[in-house]
Design a protein that fits this description.
Elements lengths: L3 H14 L18 H4 L19 H5 L12 H12 L2 E6 L1 E6 L2 H9 L11 H10 L10 H15 L9 H17 L4 H20 L13 H21 L12 H34 L9 H6 L6 H14 L2 H16 L1 H15 L7 H6 L1 H13 L8 E3 L4 E3 L2 E3 L4 E4 L4 H4 L16 H4 L22 H18 E5 L8 E3 L3 E3 L5 E5 L2
Parallel strand pairs: 2-6
Antiparallel strand pairs: 1-2, 3-6, 4-5, 7-10, 8-9
Helix pairs in contact: 8-9, 8-20, 9-14, 10-11, 11-13, 14-17, 14-20, 15-17
This protein binds protoporphyrin IX containing FE.
The site of protoporphyrin IX containing FE has 27 residues, from α13, α14 and α20.
Pfam families: p450
Organism: Biomphalaria glabrata
Keywords: Heme, Iron, Metal-binding, Monooxygenase, Oxidoreductase
């Protein structure tokens, strides 16, 4: 052990020789400083975790799940919680490949601060296999390095600016009006209400991606668009299963998981390509007739006009956005409304904010949205209580790091298990308290690592590219539902268990009760 003056001395020396030293090449904290514990960092093989056969490649992954344990890929969060209870904040195990799972916000911060200009998130291995077999180019979520950056930059310009999503508010207000009208006028089984949320998310993102309404709320919607929803969900489920090592052979032959994935992914692509083709035709027609309005938002037009992008790349990008932007938002909109239904007092507080700013009929505008502090706090608290992804925040380390006192080498896959500190690092963690986010910023940011806990959309240059749209759609649903309807839960749904597929969802479809406010 080092005394504190020795540690300060060491820090100075290490900071100076940090870059070139071969002996002291381990980056040890978010800002390159070093602590006494970290100087004595232990090797990778000292990281605790399930031992013996569990550490074997391939077989080790299978042993994590049923029938060998009580866990499945959907309850991976419960399994990781149990491992962290047993082994501490750094755990090593086989999940598809060897991974290090971390849950200390300081370590999470260290990973993000050192992720570099082109952060590496492993692409889904089953999608890699599918693309290779079908001669399809890798998409934004799979590319790495400069190729990823070259594609991400033009998309950032269109989707990630502060006002990117608000340009679509007018059209998305209309989608939400239709959604809320149906919620308020029909009786649903839990399954049909769940389906309606999928239609809502799909319809909302389609006005951005394809510049058109899909008609999913109509009596006889296009069957392809309806089938897309189930196919996207199945594809994502298979991605998760394969990614966590429950399917191993898909790389070498078309096993059952792969075939299920292939069928659903074929459908996802076919439907998305159909929409893109139609959107392109409309665009060409409008340009011919002079109807085209350059000032109205049109993502497809804007991307096709970018000389650096080929038509094929634009099409693949649109497919990825449609695929990534439906299931995720559909599921989280339900989770948020669930939290509001479960916490009636908070629902009333939020309704008051909404009615004060918009009244019972007003559309959601960018100005009103900027004033809705309770809405933002409530969604953030919902993200804390039930994070939308359990292990979506993953990186392959570009440099050697010290995490929790262990040396983790460059190239290692690291899962950031933010779900755990979201419970362990807050007062009254089991209470739904939007108010905790209303306190002054400095109060919630006493510890800089605290800002590394609630990260529903990841962090850094590779964070979720659809986040502004996802959040806007969830806000719109909450605002418009609360303007018109009271949300309750039927008694059977009062204590739902949430699982990950890979996005958070209730284990059984939620039994909402929507009642018109008179
Ligand atoms: C509640 C809804 C959503 C959640 C919780 C979510 C979550 C995430 C997360 C955690 C990541 C990884 C970020 C990282 O590695 O730092 C991600 C990436 C991504 N998301 Fe989302 N997402 C949502 C909605 C959307 C929407 C609406 C779209 C498209 C319109 C979208 C498109 C993407 C894409 C393309 C990536 C990969 C980005 C890249 O690798 O550069 N997501 N998302």
């Amino acid at each position: 052990m080092f005394r504190s003056q020795n540690v300060t001395f060491l820090r100075n020396i290490l900071d100076k020789c940090f870059v070139n030293s071969t002996v002291l090449r381990w980056r040890t904290s978010s800002v390159g400083h070093i602590s006494s514990d970290e100087v004595e960092a232990k090797p990778l093989n000292a990281i605790p975790g399930p031992g013996g056969l569990y550490q074997w490649p391939l077989i080790g992954s299978l042993l994590n799940f049923k029938p060998f344990t009580k866990f499945t890929t959907e309850t991976i969060h419960e399994y990781l919680d149990q491992l962290h209870d047993k082994y501490g904040p750094v755990v090593k195990l086989q999940l598809g490949s060897q991974v290090v799972v971390i849950s200390d916000p300081k370590d999470i911060e260290t990973v993000y601060r050192n992720e570099g200009r082109y952060p590496q998130r492993p692409g889904p291995s089953i999608l890699d296999a599918y693309n290779k077999r079908n001669n399809i180019q890798d998409n934004i979520g799979q590319l790495q390095g400069e190729a990823w950056h070259a594609l991400r930059t033009p998309v950032n310009k269109r989707l990630m600016k502060a006002d990117s999503a608000t340009h679509y508010l007018e059209q998305q207000n209309k989608v939400t009006d239709d959604f809320v009208h149906i919620l308020g006028t029909q009786n649903f089984t839990p399954e049909t209400s769940q389906d309606l949320f999928f239609r809502y998310a799909s319809e909302s993102i389609a006005v951005v991606i394809f510049n058109k309404r899909l008609g999913l709320f109509e009596a006889n919607p296009d069957q392809g668009s309806v089938d897309f929803l189930k196919a996207a969900e199945t594809s994502l489920h298979m991605i998760q299963k394969a990614g966590l090592g429950k399917s191993l052979a898909h790389k070498w032959y078309r096993n059952k998981t792969y075939r299920t994935f292939e069928n659903s992914q074929n459908l996802v692509r076919r439907v998305a390509i159909g929409h893109i083709e139609q959107a392109r035709k409309v665009l060409e027609q409008e340009m011919k007739t002079g109807e085209f309005n350059e000032d109205s938002p049109n993502l497809l037009y804007s991307l096709l006009s970018d000389k650096k992008l080929t038509n094929e790349t634009v099409a693949d990008l649109m497919i990825s956005l449609y695929f990534a932007g439906t299931d995720s938002t559909a599921k989280y909109t339900q989770v948020f409304l669930y939290n509001l239904a479960k916490h009636q007092e908070k629902q009333q507080n939020l309704r008051k904010e909404i009615l004060d700013l918009l009244g019972p009929e007003g559309p959601l505008t960018a100005t009103a949205l900027s004033k809705m502090v309770y809405l933002k706090a409530a969604l953030k608290e919902s993200f804390r209580m039930i994070p939308p992804v359990a292990i979506g925040n993953t990186r392959i380390l570009p440099v050697d790091l010290v995490l929790g006192g262990y040396k983790v080498p460059a190239g290692m896959k690291v899962f950031m298990f933010n779900k755990r500190p979201a419970r362990t690092h807050f007062e009254n963690p089991n209470q739904f308290l939007p108010e905790r986010w209303l306190r002054s910023e400095d109060n919630t940011k006493k510890d800089s690592a605290h800002s590394m806990i609630v990260l529903p959309f990841g962090h850094g240059p590779r964070n979720c590219i659809g986040r502004r749209f996802a959040v806007q759609e969830i806000y719109l649903a909450a605002v418009k539902v609360l303007q018109k309807l009271q949300i309750d839960l039927q008694p059977e749904s009062a204590f739902e268990r949430f699982i990950y597929l890979p996005f958070a969802q209730a284990e059984k479809p939620i039994r909402f009760k929507f009642t018109k406010i008179v």
